Amino acid sequence: MNTAAAFADFRRYPLISALSVVTPLADRVQVTWADGRVSPFHHAWLRDNCPCPQCVYSVTREQVLEIVDVPADLAPDVTRIDSEGCLCVDWQDGHQSRFDPGWLRAHAYDDQSRAERLAGKPRRQLWRHDLPIPVFDYPALMNDSDALLQWLLAVRDIGLTQVRGVPTEPGSLKSIAQRISFIRESNFGVLFNVQSKADADSNAYTAFNLPLHSDLPTRELQPGLQFLHCLVNDADGGESIFVDGFAIAETLRQEDPDAFAALCEIPVEFRNKDRHSDYRCLAPIIALDTLGQVSEIRMANFLRGPFDTSVEQMPRLYQAYRRFIALTREPRFRVMQRLEPGQLWCFDNRRTLHARNAFDPATGARHFQGCYVDRDELLSRILVLRR
Ligand code: OGA
Ligand code: ZN
Ligand code: ZN
């Protein structure tokens, strides 16, 4: 059998340990690996994951078998390890399956293997005011896939990066964002221009200070990554400020658990409206994942609608909101730096809140361009670069 097609994936699964013993049990096959680990695989699981060309279309490497189409009590007749070290199962109905040991180990679901996978998951690194901001070099990112990978890992795990040496031609942001993948267009364009405008359709397009916020909290799915590219910055002021929203949420959880709970539970509406569009999203400010970890912050005071919660909950919500904003203003969390022409920020918009100080348009021009890329694109590019 062609090993490359021996599993339903485009990745490679290195051999971690060879299969050494196969023990058939009533409802499962128990495998003992050369390093001593014992991994049970239920009959249904093995049949469901058969990688043969009848069960998986070899072109797409997607499954065509539906497990409901085989009897629930289907069991193996014979199980053995073949000369290439693969697990072979001859089923009672005549079907034959063959499992690559690297693939099988990578998907084993004994407690130890699952704990190992969890420990190997990317660890986000929470940061405060003293973060050494990871800085990357534009020509390297455009030409070297390893430099690209290192940048994307920093975006994923730290959520704030700077790139230097970017051309200051308008539109040049596009090519570096596309090193990741598709740009996410919005009502502000594929690229948006951050400039003080008389007919501004957002406070972002004035010279006002912008308090710490995420962009597009008005959408069901906030953009995962945000880029801000400086073309011109001759005006006094306008420094960029960042905080790690996850670090602030975790601090709130410790220092004021009820405020934390209120921000996880009570939905708040964010709105963005102009003459042609009207976007509104009702969601809590802090979102948690299935493990109870903070997975997203949604915040922009200037886009917030009036709070709408019960009479009993209203004071609790205001108190929690104040506590959160007060934390974002504490120097221990804030990183401040002025962006110069040819530099850009790339950060996790669902985690890292950003702000800018007011600037004085009378002292000179200021022109940034920005765009968004979804988090899925980042994660996919990282996996492809690692193949
Ligand atoms: C924005 C924004 C920051 C800046 O446009 O949403 O946050 O420095 N701009 O102008
Ligand atoms: Zn099959
Ligand atoms: Zn913004």
Description:
It is a single chain. The protein has 387 residues and is an alpha+beta fold. It has two domains: 3-115, NE0471 N-terminal domain-like, CATH 3.30.2020; 135-386, Clavaminate synthase-like (Double-stranded beta-helix), CATH 3.60.130. It has ten helices and 24 strands. Helix 5 (145-157) packs across helix 10 and helix 7 (245-255) packs across helix 9. The chain is elongated, with a radius of gyration of 26 Å. The model is unreliable at 1-5 (pLDDT under 50). The structure holds N-oxalylglycine and zinc ion (2 copies). One zinc ion is lined by residues 204, 213, 215, 354.
**What is the CATH superfamily label of the largest domain?**
Clavaminate synthase-like
- What's the story with the biggest beta sheet? 6 strands, mixed
Q: Terminal Cα separation, in Å?
A: 21 Å
**Order of neighbouring strands in the sheet with most strands:** 9-10-21-13-24-11
**Gross CATH architecture of the largest domain:** 4-Layer Sandwich
What small ligands are held by the chains?
Answer: N-oxalylglycine, zinc ion
| Percent of residues in β-strands | 25-35%
In total, how many beta strands? 24
Whole-angstrom Rg: 26 Å
CATH level-3 fold name of the largest domain: Double-stranded beta-helix
Oligomer: single chain
Shape: elongated
Structural class: alpha+beta
Unreliable parts: 1-5
Number of helices: 10
Look at the structure and give the mean pLDDT: 95
Counted up, domains total 2
| Helix content bin | 10-25%
What is the CATH class of the largest domain?
Answer: Alpha Beta
Which key phrases capture this entry?
NE0471 N-terminal domain-like; Double-stranded beta-helix; six-stranded mixed β-sheet; four-stranded antiparallel β-sheet; 24 strands; binds zinc ion
